[in-house]
Amino acid sequence: MFEFNSLRNLIWLIKYRKNFKNWKKRNFNPPSPDFIKHQILNNNNLNECLWVETGTYYGNSTKILSKIGKKIISIEADKRLSQLAINRFQKIDNITIINERSENVLKNILDENIEYKNLCLYLDAHLCTDHITGSKTFGEATSGTPIMYELSIIEKDLKNRNNINILIDDIRLFDQNFQNYTKKIDLVNWCLNNGFQWHIEHDIFIAKKNKSS
What we know:
By secondary structure, this protein is α/β, with parallel strands linked by helices. It has a single domain (46-210), classed as 3-Layer(aba) Sandwich (Rossmann fold), CATH 3.40.50. The protein is built from seven helices and seven strands, in the order ααβαβαβαβαβαββ. Helix 2 (34-43) packs parallel to helix 3 (60-68) and helix 5 runs parallel beside helix 6 (147-157). The radius of gyration is 17 Å and the shape is globular.
């Protein structure tokens, strides 16, 4: 008879076997499967925090965040994807979906949630090809990745928070001259200028700051 943990592990292996096999075929190169990214989100959660996600896509990471964060606001520029997420999460009270470009609404979101002293951000807004429809999501290659706009907005809000964790997805694409992705050194310099510690896990750039550091 299986012990509970053994049975749970077996169920996990069955559930993710296809993802793992595909990753193995790529010699475990990035991008990492979603189950790894979701664990990284969980590992970098802050107590009673506001999570702001840029780039909802189909909402799989949004669902994970709703289980660990106090309040989740997810921003999706693509109208069809945002409506799908609104429909999917209409019965989950701590999720709000906003159909806009993140650089247009991020400041207002932070201003309106100043009571949250613990802030986590998952920055994953970019133009991409929808893996289901094969169509391009909202945006253009020359402006589809608003990461530096987002960071400039976050920088002005730092004084309002006690602890802040920033997770930037798809770090493999930085330095690739792909679309309008910036250089990794720009992210590093931003961290140094604003007192953040940083490191990379799998395909995610992670920056952390608390008022005691």
